[in-house]
Amino acid sequence: MPRPPAPDVKPVSSSGPSLPLIGGVVVLVVALIGGLVLWAVSRSAGLGAEGSANALPEGGGIQVGAAPADGAPQVQLYEDFQCPWCGVLEQSVGASLSERAEAGEITATYTMMSFLDDNLGNDASHRAANASLCADDAGAFLRYHGAVFAGQPEQEGAGWTDEELIGFAGTAGIEGEALETFTSCFEDDTYGDYVDDMQERANRDGITGTPRMLVDGSEVRETQMQSLMSDPATLEDLLGAGS
């Protein structure tokens, strides 16, 4: 964490500082303390957006599966819906992670980032992340999450139309009044601020690329991630045969 600059205080003579100089130093110290307080507050502020049914506070992502207190393995995923390697990871172990979460064998938390929008010159990651939160309200986050990655365009940066993102809701089993609510939520960008908070949370967590996975708080090494993408059976080793 960067340190704020030290105050520019001139050295005093060996004969002792004058009273005006002492007063000036006191003012500088008080100002510095006030600046530190404001700086600390600004570092922790700005993550107050409301998320969907299973969204954690302060942009912490969507949590599904076992309650953290149950002692099940804690899996944290950082992904961007436009990230091709995230799509590869989902294709390899996404279904297994979903099944374990739905069975209460793990706690899975998904932080859906949107940094690729700036890189690719579109807003598809943001819109897809907002849509996934709308699907979460319908009890279909994992199914929608899987549908979006299954429908990931071959060309990175092509993104999705609004019609495609709404169509994935049907693939995820959202229908009837729930689909109408989903569509309204999506079109109104209801969780847009929370999507921004997830990206900021990832930034503060030091995540600079996707996909990233943590298991019980420890980041999965790059070689392990490569194994997960090529061999789904390695997930068993990562989580433990008894999980």
Protein architecture, described:
With 243 residues, the chain is an alpha+beta fold. It folds into 2 domains: 1-45, no CATH class; 62-239, Glutaredoxin (3-Layer(aba) Sandwich). It is built from 10 helices and 5 strands. It has helices at residues 19-44, 84-102, 116-120, 124-137, 141-150, 162-171, 176-187, 192-204, 222-230, 234-239, and strands spanning 62-65, 74-80, 107-113, 212-215, 218-219. It has a 5-stranded mixed beta sheet, sandwiched between helices. Strand 2, helix 2 (84-102) and strand 3 form a beta-alpha-beta unit. The longest helix has 26 residues, at 19-44. The chain is globular, with a radius of gyration of 23 Å. The two termini are 36 Å apart. Residues 1-44 have low confidence and may be disordered.
In short:
It contains ten helices and five strands; from the N terminus they run αββαβααααααββαα. It has helices spanning 19-44, 84-102, 116-120, 124-137, 141-150, 162-171, 176-187, 192-204, 222-230, 234-239, and strands at residues 62-65, 74-80, 107-113, 212-215, 218-219. Strands 1-3-2-4-5 form a five-stranded mixed beta sheet, with helices on both faces.
How is this fold's topology laid out?
Elements: H1 19-44, E1 62-65, E2 74-80, H2 84-102, E3 107-113, H3 116-120, H4 124-137, H5 141-150, H6 162-171, H7 176-187, H8 192-204, E4 212-215, E5 218-219, H9 222-230, H10 234-239
Parallel strand pairs: 2-3
Antiparallel strand pairs: 1-3, 2-4, 4-5
Helix pairs in contact: 2-5, 2-9, 4-5, 4-6, 4-7, 4-8, 5-6, 6-7
